[in-house]
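Hi all, posting the design record for the shared folder.

TITLE: backbone redesign
STEP: 1 of 1
STRUCTURE INPUT:
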């Protein structure tokens, strides 16, 4: 016996899947930015041989930090993506459940008039 899924249910599932994918992408981007911030702070604390770096060294260091952060995030990162995604989904579910049903009261003076 086969089950027929109504088109509206299929569309809702597809929309939910698309939303989840967008959340994962955003969480991955957030994790990459977070890693960049951490690695940038680490880079500033490490001075090799001298106290001030040249503009070229600073630019190169920034590019290295960005490349390392992006590589770490693409390789699975720190494991923040599933945590962030599930947290946002739970928050959205709570917001959806907490919203009262919309009720539009009739315009004043219109009761009983044809």
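Okay, here is what came back for every position:
SEQUENCE:
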């Amino acid at each position: 016996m086969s089950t027929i899924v109504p088109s509206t249910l299929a569309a809702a599932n597809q929309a939910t899947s698309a939303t989840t994918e967008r959340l994962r992408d955003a969480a991955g981007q957030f994790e990459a930015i977070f890693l960049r911030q951490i690695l940038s702070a680490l880079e500033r604390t490490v001075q090799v041989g001298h106290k001030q770096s040249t503009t070229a060294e600073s630019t190169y260091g920034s590019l290295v930090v960005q490349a390392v952060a992006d590589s770490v995030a693409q390789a699975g990162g720190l494991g923040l993506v599933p945590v962030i995604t599930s947290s946002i989904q739970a928050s959205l579910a709570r917001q959806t459940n907490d919203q009262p049903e919309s009720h539009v009261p009739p315009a004043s003076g219109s009761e009983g008039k044809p």
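COMMENT: The mean pLDDT is 75.
Let me know if anyone wants the other runs.
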